[in-house]
Design a protein that fits this description.
Helix content: 10-25%
CATH topology: Jelly Rolls
Order of helices and strands: HEHEEHEHHEEHHEEEEEEHEEH
Radius of gyration: 21 Å
Shape: globular
CATH superfamily: B-lactam Antibiotic, Isopenicillin N Synthase, Chain
CATH class: Mainly Beta
CATH architecture: Sandwich
Strand content: 15-25%
Number of domains: 1
Largest sheet: 10 strands, mixed
Number of strands: 14
Structural class: alpha+beta
Distance between the termini: 33 Å
């Protein structure tokens, strides 16, 4: 096992010390390792999350046209990629922002990114759309979109950020009261050491299980700041509502039953919160805040720092920065959505870079199936031209964490 520094990253940052060898990125076999390789993101289509509330058909308040308009909004954000070879790529990033935009989104060449809706007068799932979807289900979907209407105010999102900031500003002794145990991921701390050649992230984290409610480990939930618990629970409930709508909308947009994805998570699906703290680093050219990885979740929703950038996604073998938009949520599809969709939806490879000027905060919520609930590709996505690409799995979170620390791609280990 490598010899680890006696100081943590916050102490080394305050002293502007050179990062020890265990933090130096030594290359990556599945993604470019140039820490400065980044360019601006391409324009994303615009999705209004509030439109998807019409998918809650049990209320009986929505018409076929309203439902189809909402689904067409989501379809307009899909970018379908030919899948001549079924290989792993990074895909499916949704950025959720509160912003009034009247212009039709266009690509780099000025072409509209809104899909033309086939003319039809009968069922909102007419033959034209069925034919479109049948063809698309043999392709790979890249989803990148701005989405409005997530229902959280600027002041509330600022409150979530400020709560995280107040915790990380506490003295080390106070934060250590909520420290994780050696072989546990929950609690406050840094990387769990699982490999002698492991490269450490330049960050501290507070990881807490929020749902199921009776599985919360209350001894790890901070008492300071005083509003920490109520703020996290309120935020988690709001985000869970957004996730529920996204699962339904994505299923319906592909002509599936609403619960085709969400139904695999079980009655006691997990939601973890991860508060991330990235101190300043004297060598951002050598050290990463988070190593390249895909998320293990079905959906991840991230609240970024209000001012400091750091998140990057891999697009066409280049690292592309995700700009900071103060009232935005970043939504990533994770590996378990990739498994359930039989590779049609793909989770984006992403990382977090460091900087030498400003500390950075973020808050991520991860939604996962019950650990003992088996998930697998939806039957509708498997046929002779596209057989099952992944085996059914349980407790994928454990598989992912071990692979991440060893520098492996977890989704590769469950391929058939």
């Amino acid at each position: 096992m490598a010899s680890l520094s006696k100081k943590d990253v916050q102490e080394m940052s305050a002293a502007t010390e050179q990062p020890p060898s265990e933090y130096i990125v030594k290359g990556c076999t599945f993604a470019p390792s140039d820490n400065f390789s980044s360019s601006s993101a391409t324009p994303f289509p615009i999705i209004d999350i509030s439109l998807f509330s019409s998918l809650l058909l049990d209320s009986g308040n929505s018409t076929n046209n309203e439902v189809e308009n909402a689904l067409q909004t989501l379809r307009s954000a899909y970018r379908w990629l030919e899948a001549d070879r079924l290989i792993l790529t990074r895909l499916a990033v949704v950025r959720v922002e509160v912003m009034a935009l009247d212009a039709v989104p266009v690509d780099e060449e000025g072409r509209s990114l809104v899909l033309r809706q086939p003319e039809h007068t009968d069922s909102h799932y007419d033959d034209d759309i069925r034919a479109q979807l049948a063809d698309q289900q043999r392709q790979i979907a890249e989803l990148r979109a701005h989405a409005t209407g997530h229902g959280m105010s600027s002041s509330f999102l600022d409150k979530v950020r400020e709560t995280a900031c107040q915790f990380f500003e506490l003295p080390k002794e106070e934060k250590s009261k909520y420290g994780r145990s050696e072989n546990d991921i929950e609690g406050y701390g840094s990387d769990m050491i699982v490999s002698s050649n492991q490269v450490l992230d330049w960050s501290h984290r507070l990881i807490l299980r929020v749902f199921p409610e009776d599985e919360r480990r209350n001894n790890l939930w901070p008492d300071n700041p005083p509003n920490f618990r109520e703020t996290l629970i309120e935020y988690s409930l709001k985000v869970k509502s957004v996730m529920d709508l996204l699962y339904k909308a994505m299923a319906r947009s592909l002509n599936l039953k609403e619960n085709s994805f969400s139904g695999q998570f079980g009655e006691r699906a997990l939601m973890h919160a991860r508060f991330n703290f990235y101190p300043r680093c004297s060598r951002p050219d050598l050290v990463l805040g988070v190593k390249p990885h895909t998320d293990r979740s079905g959906i991840t929703i991230l609240l970024q720092d209000k001012q400091v950038e750091g998140l990057q996604i891999l697009v066409d073998e280049k690292w592309v920065r995700v700009p900071v938009i103060p009232d935005a949520l970043v939504v990533n599809l994770g590996d378990q959505m990739q498994i359930m969709s039989n590779g049609i939806f793909r989770g984006p490879m992403h990382r977090v870079v460091t900087n030498c000027e400003s500390l950075r905060l973020s808050v991520a919520l991860f939604h996962e199936p019950e650990p003992e609930k088996e998930i697998g590709p939806v039957d509708s996505f498997m046929d002779e031209p596209r057989p099952s690409l992944y085996r059914n799995v349980k407790n994928y979170g454990f598989i992912t964490y071990e692979c991440y620390q060893k520098g492996l791609v977890a989704i590769e280990t469950v391929k058939i």
